[in-house]
Design brief:
The chain is mainly alpha-helical and 151 residues long. It contains six helices and no strands. It starts with a helix and ends with a helix.
């Protein structure tokens, strides 16, 4: 999938979730929302798979893969080191498994990705609020500094 496809998946989800506070969300909350979006799309795809609604199943799996690709793009590998690389590998694996689930109509593969993503999301959700706020303030400070220097 091309970078533009990754961006379009994130833009698609962002567009759907504007009412959920995307524009004012912290970077931490945005990642939570993306993970929630993937889980929602997988659950919807599973429903359509069980109803034998191939097109709707495929659409939902496609959006889930796009959002996962967006999660991969958002990783800061230099800062995140081994953890970021492991997440990148895991997200890439999830995308492949979702593709197989779509091609083979395999509910167990959807369940596998949901389980893996729920584990990552649980760890992400457990990050203490003060760490989240410190990071959000640092990101905002970096953005403000870049804006004041013209870029």
């Amino acid at each position: 999938m091309s970078f533009s496809g990754k961006q379009s998946g994130m833009q698609q989800y962002k567009k759907m979730s504007v009412q959920g506070g995307v524009d004012s969300a912290t970077p931490h909350r945005l990642i939570q929302m993306l993970m929630e979006g993937v889980l929602e799309k997988i659950a919807t795809a599973k429903y359509h798979m069980e109803k034998n609604e191939t097109a709707k199943k495929g659409e939902n799996i496609s959006v889930a893969i796009s959002i996962i690709d967006g999660l991969r793009v958002s990783l800061d590998k230099p800062a995140g080191g081994e953890i970021a690389q492991n997440l990148d590998d895991l997200y890439e694996y999830m995308g492949r498994i979702l593709l197989q689930a779509n091609l083979k109509n395999d509910v167990s593969k959807l369940d596998e990705v949901s389980k893996l993503l729920n584990e990552i999301k649980s760890a992400w959700d457990a990050i203490p609020d003060e760490v989240v706020l410190d990071h959000a303030n640092k990101v905002k400070g970096d953005e403000d500094q870049a804006a004041s220097h013209g870029g």
